[in-house]
Amino acid sequence: MDLIIILKAFSDENRIRILNLLNHGELCVCEIEYILNMSQSNVSRHLNRLNYAKIIESYKKAQFVYYKLNDDTIKEHRFIKSILNNELYKIRQCKIDLDNLKKYRELKIDCNTMNLNKINS
Asked: Could you give all domains of the chain from N- to C-terminal order, each with its CATH number?
């Protein structure tokens, strides 16, 4: 049953895009929203599906929730890492998302900074 849930989690382009980012390090919900240009509700819905499949895990730091790949699931189902490392770079949108991730990291902003910008806008 777990395998079916995992495979279903891979059946959505937005979840693939999120996994693509998380394969390059943990991110807060607001960072994922920013990088993928998606609404908070949409990102949260997809994160919940990935969390339910145990592909990702989360932890809270202050008022922010951070997500990362679940190492235990990745070790148990090695095909996941293979897909993340060997297949996603072939998808044009995933390449664009990684470029956006790189640009985001170069800006040296974080969730606190983004929230201040939203308040001051």
From this structure: 2-109 (1.10.10.10)
Show Cβ contacts of residue 65 under 8 Å, excluding neighbours closer than 6 positions. Answer: 28, 29, 58, 59
Name, in order, each residue with C-beta under 8 angstroms of 77's C-beta and a sequence gap of 6 or more: 3, 6
Instruction: Spell out the residues 6+ positions from residue 96 whose beta carbon is closer than 8 angstroms to its own.
Output: none
Q: Is the dihedral of CA 75, 79, 80, 85 positive or negative?
A: positive
Q: What is the DSSP letter of 88?
A: G
Question: Which amino acid, one-letter code, is at 85?
Answer: N
Residues whose CB is less than 8 angstroms from the CB of residue 99 and which lie 6 or more positions away in sequence, other chains included: none
Convert the pLDDT of each residue in 34-67 to its tens digit.
Answer: 999 999 999 999 999 999 999 999 999 989 999 9
Three-state DSSP at 2 gives helix
Q: What confidence tens digit (pLDDT) does each residue in 60-108 have? A: 998 999 999 999 999 999 999 999 999 999 999 999 999 999 999 998 8
* Distance, CA of 75 to CA of 31 (rounded, Å): 26
